[in-house]
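User: Please fill in residues for this 276-position structure.
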């Protein structure tokens, strides 16, 4: 599936991609619930969802803050992602979700105006130079005792399969280069977050989550769809050779039929920063 050349989100906004984000959300749902409970966004809170996409976590946030609370869901893609989020919020009966179309490189809110900020798998798609200024602004939006919860990948070299794959390290490397793109994004931006939140004056708590899924289970779809949908574009862009892709997919097909095969993803840095 080709990426959409009219926008800068690496994987585009096709129906397949919006669905892939939902499948990915389900695989990480238990970890995300634990992360949200560490952040403890309370009833009546105003919480911002940075780079919310179709809003898979937004609705969990809407539930957590309740009818007296409010979720401000921000994404650069108003047309597809935010429309879908509004439909889903309406279907689920949430009237406390407000959507904003904005580029996070420049998005801003008044000082000390919110109780919480959440963001997952979004800072990795911003140019790295834009991330520190964004974190500074986020820290400024927080009221006293308010919480910022950010989750981002932090180690593509950990991505592996058992039984081992001869080709996966090259695939992971190509995916990293694709996410980095020519805008200087950092696919492992999770490594920088603890320091950035600390320097913005927040009290920082860390947790690292890892995810392994077994072939022949529904969760296998998470890596399977990513590889099948998005690797061919990497060949077109010269980030991966056709021979490497074919060799990897032949091996991947074999692993996919083996109920003993396990795929391990990149660890995810989950950082909670509290304003004192
Ligand atoms: C991988 S999706 C993650 C969606 C959601 N946070 C989740 O956890 O399922 C990344 C989202 O970030 C948004 N995004 C990427 N760069 C952005 C930017 N510069 N400003 C606003 N949104 C951006 C994309 O439009 C996309 O919806």
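Assistant: Residues filled in for all 276 positions:
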């Amino acid at each position: 599936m080709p990426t959409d050349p009219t926008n800068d989100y690496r994987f585009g906004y096709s129906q397949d991609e919006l669905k892939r984000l939902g499948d990915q959300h389900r695989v990480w749902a238990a970890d995300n619930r634990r992360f949200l409970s560490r952040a403890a966004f309370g009833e009546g809170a105003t919480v911002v969802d940075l780079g919310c996409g179709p809003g898979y976590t937004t609705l969990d946030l809407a539930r957590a803050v309740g009818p007296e609370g409010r979720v401000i869901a921000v994404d650069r893609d108003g047309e597809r992602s935010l429309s879908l989020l509004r439909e889903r919020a309406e279907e689920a009966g949430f009237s406390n979700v407000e959507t904003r179309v904005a580029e996070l490189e420049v998005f801003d809110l008044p000082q000390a105006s919110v109780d919480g900020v959440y963001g997952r798998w979004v800072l990795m798609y911003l140019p790295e130079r834009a991330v520190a200024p964004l974190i500074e602004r986020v820290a400024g939006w927080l009221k006293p005792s308010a919480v910022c919860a950010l989750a981002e990948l932090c180690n593509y070299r950990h991505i592996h399969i058992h039984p081992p794959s001869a080709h996966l390290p090259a695939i992971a490397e190509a995916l990293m280069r694709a996410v980095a793109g020519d805008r200087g994004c950092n696919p492992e931006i999770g490594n920088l977050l603890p320091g950035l939140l600390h320097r913005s004056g927040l009290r920082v708590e860390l947790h690292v989550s890892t995810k392994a899924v077994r072939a022949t289970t529904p969760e296998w779809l998470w890596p399977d769809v990513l590889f099948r949908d998005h690797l061919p574009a990497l060949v077109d862009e010269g980030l991966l050779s056709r021979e490497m892709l074919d060799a990897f997919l032949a091996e991947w097909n074999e692993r996919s039929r083996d109920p003993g095969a396990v795929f391990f993803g990149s660890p995810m840095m989950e950082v909670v920063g509290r304003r004192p």
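For context: The chain has one domain: 15-274.
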